[in-house]
Design goal:
This protein is an all-alpha fold. It is built from 17 helices and 2 strands. The protein has a two-stranded antiparallel ribbon with strand order 1-2. Helix 2 (63-85) crosses helix 14 (378-385) and helix 4 packs parallel to helix 7 (189-207).
Length: 472
């Protein structure tokens, strides 16, 4: 492969980015931006002249992303189901490679790629959040209720100290991972980080900083390297509550100095509230600081590749961010990773296991990104379509008694049950939820259109100042 920045594809991307930069600065995306008429699809789309990627799509969905999601969901389910049948699989995942963590990182890279595209396509942050709520919560709440009901049976046991009412209500927020309370759905911890990423992207869009993903990804990796270990023992862990007021107030003061002069009215309040929420969530994370930063950095690496894809970042920049993240991950893991023995088998995760898992996820994502113009098998693409169901439903299968079959047959039965149930939940829960979300969005757009001033008529100064930037 030619060195980054020298091949034809990178030169062409650089030329596109130069044209994009020549168009002038980007203005912030408003919470009250104009109504857009772009139909709701999954494939990213930007304005004419900015849309340059060659990714193959089918039914409005990018095939390479669905293929990646399909692989990620299957790998996560396979590891957890296999551990249910063969406890020694835990030893393999701690010693050599962590399939479940690989899948999670692929999901995060995919989210980083598609979420900014979704925000830009809609042109309205309220529409984005309506779409996210109806995309994620219907299935999540359905699975949560089934899991809670299963706790009343003799074969399903909740986490230690589980309180049926308060912990169930807490788990409905998807933010339970940032507390000390038990998770009803073990795999739901990743959704908390997804929500933090959405909040961060919302703040960046409101500030007009959403195209700075390369710098943000670099900053997160560098922070993980420089401060990831030093900060954890002092005040960024849940047990050191007495340090919270000083830390939070100090960071909020810095955020206010940066944010307040750039915003006015309702946007100022929303930005400050979101900044406070992000700080509280990240400070109260259950993982080491360096690990949390690497997870968020991975999402912004995906965003940087999206910026390259639409010609807003040149090839050298994209390759540089990607390479820095890979190298930084290895160095950070080497410096800070300290494995704790797993309760059942006593296996201890090693730093090279974690580093190899992260790097392999990056390499697989990068390879399919480079091949994004190719067609992928329909089975794999469909598996990506139902990947959210696979990710959540397999957690319910784990609550069932293990089939009284030989190990291989038991594993195959559990996997088949997961896939079959996921097909049903996708068509009976996910799709109706998304349809309802589109209906709510349509009514929201209609109300905004009715309240909008006539075409060509005078507009209030505030509305003129809050239009969405139109990239060249």
């Amino acid at each position: 492969m030619p060195p980054p920045g020298r091949s034809g594809v990178f030169r062409r991307a650089g030329a596109r980015a130069d044209r994009s930069r020549a168009a002038g600065p980007v203005r912030p995306l408003s919470v009250r931006s104009p109504v857009t008429t772009t139909p709701e699809t999954v494939a990213p789309a930007t304005h004419a002249g900015d849309r340059v990627h060659a990714a193959r799509s089918r039914n409005g969905r990018l095939e390479f992303l669905d293929a990646l999601r399909g692989v990620a969901a299957l790998v996560v389910a396979v590891q957890h189901l296999a551990e249910h049948v063969w406890p020694e699989v835990v030893v393999f995942s701690h010693t050599w490679w962590r399939p479940g963590e690989f899948g999670v990182l692929v999901f995060f890279l995919c989210s980083g790629f598609i979420i900014p595209a979704s925000m830009e396509r809609r042109g309205d942050l309220a529409e984005f959040w309506i779409g996210r709520v109806f995309r994620l919560f219907p299935l999540y709440l359905a699975v949560l209720l089934v899991a809670v009901a299963a706790f009343a049976t003799p074969w399903a046991t909740p986490g230690a100290g589980y309180r049926p009412v308060t912990d169930t209500l807490l788990n409905t927020t998807m933010l339970q991972v940032f507390t000390t309370r038990p998770l009803v759905i073990g795999a739901s911890w990743t959704l908390g980080y997804e929500m933090v990423f959405y909040l961060l992207m919302t703040v960046l869009f409101m500030l007009g900083w959403h195209r700075r993903s390369a710098g943000i990804a670099t900053g997160l990796v560098v922070t993980a390297l420089v401060a990831g270990g030093a900060l954890v023992p002092f005040f960024l862990v849940q047990t050191q509550i007495q340090s919270w007021p000083a830390v939070v107030l100090g960071l909020l003061a810095i955020a206010a100095v940066v944010v307040v002069p750039r915003l006015a009215g309702r946007e100022r309040l929303v930005a400050l509230v979101l900044a406070a929420a992000v700080l509280l969530l990240v400070l109260n994370r259950p993982h080491d600081l360096w690990f949390a930063l690497l997870l968020l950095a991975s999402m912004f690496v995906g965003t940087a590749l999206y910026r390259y894809d639409v010609g807003q970042l040149d090839g050298r920049g994209a390759a540089g961010v990607f390479g820095l993240a890979v190298v930084g991950i290895v160095v950070v893991q080497f410096c800070y990773h300290v494995g704790a023995p797993e309760a059942t088998t006593g296996a201890t995760p090693q730093w090279w296991t974690e580093a190899g898992t992260f790097v392999s996820a990056y390499l697989v994502f990068g390879a399919l990104f480079l091949l994004r113009g190719r067609a992928y098998p329909r089975v794999l693409v469909y598996l990506g379509t139902i990947s959210y169901s696979v990710y959540l439903v397999h957690a319910l299968v784990l609550l069932l008694p293990r089939p009284a079959l030989p190990p291989v047959a038991a594993f195959a039965t559990m996997l088949a049950l997961t896939l079959a149930a996921s097909v049903l939940t996708y068509h009976w829960v996910e799709k109706p939820g998304q349809l309802l979300g589109r209906q709510v969005t349509g009514r929201y757009r209609a109300r905004r259109a009715a309240a909008a001033p006539p075409a060509g008529g005078p507009q209030p100064a505030a509305e003129r100042d809050e239009r969405v930037a139109t990239p060249a």
